[in-house]
Design goal:
The chain is mainly alpha-helical. The chain has a single domain (5-87), classed as Methane Monooxygenase Hydroxylase, Chain G, domain 1, CATH 1.20.58.110. 83% of the residues lie in helices and 0% in strands. The chain has three helices and no strands. α1 (5-40) runs parallel beside α3. The longest helix has 36 residues, at 5-40. The protein is elongated. It starts with a helix and ends in a 5-residue tail after the last helix.
Amino acid sequence: MANTVSALKRVRVTERRTAVNRMRKSRLRHQIRAMRRLLEQKDTQGAAQMLPNTFSLVDRAAKWGIIKKNTAARYKSRLTLRLRKISTPTAA
C-alpha cells in the first residue's frame, strides 16, 4: 500500500479515472453493438440515423485514449461499408 500523501492521492485518482474509462468503453461497445444489430436487421433508416451518434462516440473514445485512432477509423470504415451495402439496391 502507498505510504506518502501524493501516492495515496494517485491511488484515489487512478480509481476514479478507471471507473470513468470503464463506463466510457462500455458505452462505446453498447453503441457499436446497437449499430451492428440495426445493420443485421437491414434497418437502413435506423442505422443511418444512428450513424452520426456512433461516429461521434467512436471519435471521442479515440480522443480520450479508450481506443486507438486506427481502431476508431476501422470501426467507422466497416460500419459505413455495411450501411452502404444494405442501402444500395442490388442489381439483379
